[in-house]
Amino acid sequence: MPVPESAVVHPLVLLSVVDHYNRVARDTKKRVVGLLLGEHSKGRVDITNSFAVPYEEDDRDPSIWFLDHSYLESMFQMFKKVNAREKVVGWYSTGPRLREADQDITELMTNYCDTPLLVICEVQPKEMGLPTTAYYATDAIREDGTQKSQKVFVNIPTEIGATEAEEIGVEHLLRDVKDATVSTLAAEVSTLAAGLSGLKSRLLQIQEYLSLVIGGKLPVNHDILYQLQDVFNLLPNLGIEELARSFAVQSNDMMLAIYLASLTRSVLALHNLIDNKEQRVYREKEASKATKEVKGPKGEQSSTDKKDDSSKKADGGEAAPHSNGNIDGPDSNGK
């Protein structure tokens, strides 16, 4: 495998590393180690899969460590049966920094690939930014030739990439994790604040590095200075009044659209609340009206029965005196 120029870490690898750490070394100062699988093409390494490897090291003496070779080889053979395209591209560690035994472990990994990568995944990052850092080992020779060549780690750019299927899975996972009580505007503001915090930390690192170089504590690295110069050249010249006005107008238009969207969302929520309340009141009135209509005919029938009873009583009272007159009164002969 040629010298890698960049590394792309897929979401499945990050989830596997976090799960491995939570199962083995959570709430401890230990780190976990595993093997990375993927493909290498034109200097780019796609890390698509990984698996955990039993690993132990002595806290007092970092040079004493143990890695289960037999487990590593058996697991790799099983993974190879599932996907033969995936090959060993390196190994991972939860760091969070390089350690003394990393050179020896990397040398061991050369039995499985020519230029193994070391990817340090920070499961509990303290700063904003990508939680992964990739290195590969190379021979370094001092320019004055005073020392023999020795292995040193060289950092390469890393990024988080995913296939279409992985993107769909991550979206569903984030949909379940997302807090529905937080509005879209608040989420966007928090994202911007996190991005600015990460930018501030990177600028502080650049300032610290330049201060050490100026003080003579670090040697001058022309590659880093060229990259910093390119970054500063890409920055817009905000001293031009027209450009500053354009940025302000664009920012104001975007914020106005976000504000109007949030205002419309609030109005619609209030409208739905009021509409729901009106429907509830209307249903209660209809229910009470239907109850009165059901009770009404029974009351009329009872009043009619009362009228019939009173009429019957009245008829009975008039008939009684008539019959008594026929009985007690004189007949037609005067008797």
TrEMBL record:
It holds the Pfam family MitMem_reg. The keyword Transmembrane does not apply. Keywords: Proteasome. GO terms for biological process: proteasome-mediated ubiquitin-dependent protein catabolic process; system development. Residues 7-141 form the MPN domain. GO terms for cellular component: proteasome regulatory particle. Belongs to the peptidase M67A family. This is 26S proteasome regulatory subunit. It comes from Coccomyxa subellipsoidea (strain C-169) (Green microalga).
